[in-house]
From TrEMBL:
Organism this protein belongs to: Streptosporangium longisporum
Residue stretches making up the Thioredoxin domain: 88-253
InterPro entries, A to Z: AhpC/TSA, Thioredoxin-like_sf, Thioredoxin_domain, Thioredoxin_ResA/DsbE_sf
Annotated protein name in UniProt: Thioredoxin domain-containing protein
Pfam families named in the record: AhpC-TSA
Length: 334
């Protein structure tokens, strides 16, 4: 079994490894075997704990991921394993990714959007806020949830703020983003100043979502200029175990769709939908890879399904929007 080659999707990379039982002497997820246990830098998993993942042939990759607090989903028939992010991130810290780390020392609004969401029309307004407030030590960092990078790039042609395309869903996983638009504020020291909120930069869909872009912009300016984030909440809302597993099934589905293995991809997409039916970043976001129009009948059927089940698509209204109410029956932008 140790000689079986599989494709591992982890830490934003894709690699071929000997597994799912990794032969003795090989590193596992960047960890190496030492006499006293498995180590990565200064961190170590003691030998007595690691023994639960070790076999006579090698190390069980899925079991070892579990020891690290990381979920894993394997598809032996397709030769795939996806490993998720650690669940025990430091409280109050913004999860690191390269573009955000490069902005340390700056207040950042991390703006999650997608070409399949009406919030794509907000990008010029976010760009205007980026330019207006840049002199106060502020930056917008937009993160597209598009799985196809070309779909996002045409909307980014005129922006000057830092922008990332989250093609494998890893950043959405780190920040527990279930739909767009979602915005997270990160302070200059890399701490969460305001966790995930539904926040708009234009009133294009106000009749549907009940949100005021003027109030949102005023709250943002108070934070950037006066340091008042307007909330006592300083931690991201954590995902459930089901949400974490759903994102791994979505990662496998994405890889399989790109490889032309549609039937297998659809199985994983269905499993993701069963685990996290409310996660539009998965269910709507993967429609284009499956040849489905994310603005078409399937999307509106999905909206009706969620509404009938009483599942809210948006996060609760931010406190600066307290006296605004969404239009009746409206749950998502077109």
């Amino acid at each position: 079994m140790g000689e079986e080659m599989i494709t591992l999707l982890a830490d934003g990379r894709e690699e071929r490894i000997a597994g799912p039982i990794v032969p003795h002497g090989e590193p596992v997820l960047g960890w190496e075997r030492k006499p006293h246990g498995w180590c990565r830098g200064d961190a170590c998993v003691p030998a007595f704990r690691a023994a639960a993942a070790e076999t006579g042939e090698g190390v069980d990759l899925v079991a070892f991921a579990g020891l690290l607090g990381r979920q894993a989903v394997a598809d032996p028939d397709e030769g795939l394993i996806a490993v998720g992010e650690p669940a025990d991130l430091p409280p109050g810290r913004a999860p690191e990714f390269e573009a955000l780390t490069a902005l340390r020392g700056t207040r950042v609004a991390v703006v999650f959007w997608a070409s399949w969401c009406g919030c794509r029309y907000d990008l010029p307004a976010w760009e205007a806020l980026h330019r207006e407030l840049g002199g106060h030590g502020f930056s917008v960092l937009s993160v597209s949830l598009d799985r196809d990078p070309e779909a996002a790039r045409e909307w980014l042609a005129e922006v000057t703020h830092p922008a990332v395309i989250d093609t494998d869903g890893r950043i959405a996983e780190l920040y527990n983003v279930i739909n767009v638009p979602t915005v997270v504020w990160v302070d200059a020291e890399g701490r969460i100043a305001r966790p995930q909120d539904t926040m708009t930069a234009t009133d294009t869909f106000r009749s549907m979502n009940g949100l005021s872009c003027e109030r949102a912009a005023a709250a943002l300016r108070r934070w950037v200029i006066d340091g008042d984030a307007g909330t006592t909440s300083r931690e991201l809302r954590a995902p459930t175990g089901e949400e974490r597993r759903a994102r791994l099934h979505a990662r496998l589905a994405t890889w399989l769709f790109r490889a032309g293995r549609t039937a297998a991809a659809e199985r994983h997409l269905a499993r993701a939908a069963a685990l996290a039916p409310h996660d539009l970043a998965i269910r709507r976001g993967l429609m284009p890879l499956n040849g489905v129009d994310p603005f078409g009948e399937r999307y509106f059927a999905l909206r009706e399904e969620l509404e009938a089940a009483g599942i809210a698509i948006y996060r609760p209204l931010p406190d600066w929007q307290g006296d605004e109410e969404p239009a009746a029956g409206a749950t998502a932008p077109s």
